[in-house]
Design brief:
Length: about 150
């Protein structure tokens, strides 16, 4: 689901670090998913460290970039999908906001529209950007969100 080229599991702590070092030396982007105290060194070495579960050890949680609150590997795929959707919406919002500013500033400087209409248009584009962003919260895919673990947002 997330397009992994290679993955390994069931490794001892030193084997995890060696595998991540090998991938890093080849220039690969490495994500490490773990939950135990023995995972802290490999979580720190990976480009993206993902701790599984709120019950993970303090060391694993401290070294992680992402903490998934449920002890389900499917949560990683869901978080990956959510991050892709978020990046896509950020791109859309940049196009909307910058495009609106360019059009309105050009029109206002050319005296095609009054400045107050330009300001109102800019505020309208801000509302559109916020509403576009809210689509992430409207998802019913079961992501853990603002309301807490296990609740759909």
């Amino acid at each position: 689901q997330v397009g992994l080229k290679d993955f390994r599991f069931g490794l001892h702590p030193e084997e995890k670090v060696a595998a991540i070092r090998e991938w890093n030396e080849r220039g690969e982007k490495v994500a490490m998913v773990g939950d135990g105290v023995n995972d802290a060194p490999s979580l720190a070495m990976a480009e993206i460290g993902v701790a599984m579960g709120a019950r993970g050890t303090g060391a694993a949680l401290a070294e992680s970039d992402i903490i998934l609150m449920r002890d389900r590997l499917e949560s990683f795929a869901e978080a990956f999908d959510l991050s892709r959707r978020t990046r896509r919406i950020i791109g859309q919002n940049l196009v909307i906001s910058l495009g609106t500013v360019v059009v309105l500033v050009t029109a206002a400087l050319g005296a095609a529209i009054p400045l107050t209409v330009g300001v109102a248009g800019h505020e309208g584009s801000t509302v559109i950007v916020v509403l576009n962003s809210l689509r992430l919260l409207a998802s019913r895919r079961g992501y853990v969100g603002l309301r807490g673990a296990g609740e759909k947002v």
